[in-house]
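Appendix B. One record, verbatim.
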Amino acid sequence: MEYEVVIGLEVHVELKTESKAFCSCPTTFGSEPNTNVCPGCLGLPGTLPAINQKMVEYGLKTALALNCTINPYCLFERKHYFYPDLPKGYQISQQTLPLAVNGYLSVYIEGREKKIGINRVHMEEDAGKLLHVGEYTLVDCNRAGVPLLEIVSEPHINSSQEARAYMEKLRTILLYLGVSDCKMEEGSLRCDVNISLRPKGSEASGTRIEIKNLNSFRSLQKALEYEIERQRAILERGGAIEERATMAWDEEREITYPMRTKEESLDYRYFPDPDLLPLVIDPQWIEEIKRELPELPDARCQRFQEQYGLPPYDAGVLTSSKELADYYEGVVSLYPEPKTVSNWIMSEFLRLLNAYNLEPHEAPVSPQKMADLLHLLKKEIISTKIAKQVIEEMFATGKGPEDIVREKGWVQISDVEALEAIVEEVLAAHPKVVEDYRKGKEKALAFLVGQVMKATQGKANPNLVNRLLKEKL
């Protein structure tokens, strides 16, 4: 039997605010354990929460960017469960009346657009963190109370590739908005997955299994691939996925394993937080935030195609990161040949960023230095081969291209008499190749060009070398 995969994602985003959701404690990552705490986020008796306005603003920005409908009246509720890292014994969250509903974002899979629905966007506070040391478990409450957005998709995702594309697109939008640093390795972007299988064409829902706290794109995709095959094997041998369960992902063994049975919303005993008034969103505030929204990835991708004449693929790669798109536009403003700039950024620049594990803003090659390199290439002061060596030196040393070319003696040879002598030596040394070319073997010319370039250590002007060779032949 053929099965259809049904996936929904619950993404948790730590917001980049200076203080926590309901108190004034700082949200600094990496502080000494239990130093960013106060009686409020420690759940001590007699404390009262106060809503962080910046949290609401960031929530509205995100909801608008995800095409959601803002609820003009929303409610904070208490979600009760008992874990050591939840000091109050409940989490302040939203269930009945969330901040926003009914949105979507679009992803592209193999050139095909797919619209994935967003069920809801709601605000809540994070829990603390458990540190397992030998036989002991330590509790760090620094993260308790950090503002979160939970973004819940509709079950419109049908493969691990679509799930990864959705997460990558969502992260890009959040980074464009500037509401989170989205550092998955620090836990500021993580997701839970709900996955089930059902016979293809069936409208009935299969038994959903949840996989908790996936904090990398690779983990998300691998966990889904494993769980899909696990469930398919059970169904194909006549078994059933009998009970809704919560699974964890073992990164080393690359398997899912059971944590506990899945709680239902009734188990959490939600009720309105009596210490927080309902939140009424002023329509004028929404309009102000709409006007302040930055150009988002899809719009920027379209503009790059229209303004710079880039192919869709180039525009998609360059706008997949706000910093990379900013870098590209910085270079184009100084060297107005959009496709040439795109080629160099997508090849050499990205290759070296990956090699040095850097973000675009951390690169020692500024837009000005990249433009200077391309100007040297256009003026035929250096060849393409030498330009690739120069950019490697720029990354290694931080020096400008002119300084490197001068220090290394890499100026391109364009002296006709000097090159003529080398060309004649190459032709004399390879009479068989010369004969092959004269018999119509065009590839022989490429070999001869390569020999001249080798003799000049790549510094010969390749256009001039081609011309001289053809004249002599």
